[in-house]
Amino acid sequence: MGNIALVALACGLIIGLGAIGACIGIGVMGGKFIEAAARQPELMDRLQVKMFLLAGLIDANFLIGVGIAMMFCFANPFGG
Predict the structure, then answer these.
(1) Catalytic residue IDs
(2) What CATH number is attached to the domain comprising 31?
(3) 42-45, long-range: CB within 8 Å, 24+ apart, which pairs?
């Protein structure tokens, strides 16, 4: 297995595991939001703002990982 193949494998793992983590995180957060909104409906507006803020941060974290993986794919610092 060559150096380029290992970089491609690493990029796939970065993107795949980042996507799985982001999906699980947003799913758990959404479930907890529904639980909290059902228990105290008067706090729903404040909780919704915080939920969307955190969803954006989780998604931004995944997109940073995709950017790093694309940097390794197209501007490979390890290639010869």
Answers:
(1) 59
(2) 1.20.20.10
(3) none
